[in-house]
Amino acid sequence: MYPTDRPRRLRTDGVSPLVSESSLAASDLVAPVFVDATTDERVPIESMPGHERVPVDEAVARVEEIRRTGVEAVILFGIPETKDATGSRAYAEDGVVQRAIRRISAETDAYVIGDVCLCEYTDHGHCGVVEESAESDPTLTVKNDETLELLAETAVSQADAGADMVAPSAMTDGQVRAIREALDDAGHEGVALMSYAAKYESAFYGPFRDAADGAPAFGDRRHYQMDPANRREALREARLDAEEGADVLMVKPGLPYLDVVSDLRREFDRPIAAYNVSGEYAMLHAAAENGWLDLEATAHESLLSLKRAGADLIVTYFAEDLGDRL
Length: 326
Ligand code: PBG
Description:
Elements: H1 16-19, E1 29-36, E2 43-44, E3 52-54, H2 56-68, E4 73-79, H3 96-107, E5 111-116, H4 144-161, E6 165-168, H5 175-185, E7 192-199, H6 206-211, H7 232-244, E8 248-252, H8 258-267, E9 272-276, H9 278-289, H10 295-309, E10 313-316, H11 319-325
Parallel strand pairs: 1-3, 1-4, 1-10, 4-5, 5-6, 6-7, 7-8, 8-9, 9-10
Antiparallel strand pairs: 2-3
Helix pairs in contact: 2-3, 2-11, 3-4, 4-5
């Protein structure tokens, strides 16, 4: 018997755009930018082909390159001149990210997001203040409540510099409330907050840790980032962040966690973001370099999958490349 229902009828060039369920536009994308206080030239990031750490003097030029591709939003990460136990260069008024934000927001129309975390700024590489004896006993943890104040200070200093949005990524319990209150107290009610709500302890961050020099010197992040085995827990994390005042809820990484993106989309009425992380970028590049995959096609399909799963916006190292083509 022949089929009466033929899905193929809707797969012609004429009709398929009409019935397409998801789409990808440059306006969905956020491009990461690394500003580095230790260099006065652009330094290529080896594990992330096409990306560089740029000095503050090059930050505006870097953002303008991105904007020429149609991508209007950037998220800034900093490599400080010095590191210490409490990550004090993360919340210094003249910190590398604060200086870059000041320039970018004064000289461009980009939408500027500040990543709020301490791991690039602490000498031990953890995302907060650690117990004194943590080095000898890595089972000891990052001190949650002592870290809150420093994250709040970091966010306020970025907002003071002109950030449009702050994005706490430290997975410290209560960080969204602490930051929202501190921003409001400082007169920054208009600064938006995107929380890395479901951030997993993932091996896909490897290239980023090279790029931003933020690998933990001892121990790991399992006591504050989420266990990759857990799905329900992401709803709990997201609910807490929504209650605490997050405007946008992010899932990170992206592709290995499409179920989580989809869950959050269904459960919440807030915009959902996905972070297509450094490892997701690096693996496609490595395969393409070997001639095993078509880079442009697989990058596009990856981001489209995140949209299909329910992401409204995507932080991705492919932003510039795809922005150009979209
Ligand atoms: C800071 C932070 C990390 C990433 C974004 N913000 C590193 C980490 O948690 O280890 C990773 C981004 C990527 O891999 O692209 N906490």
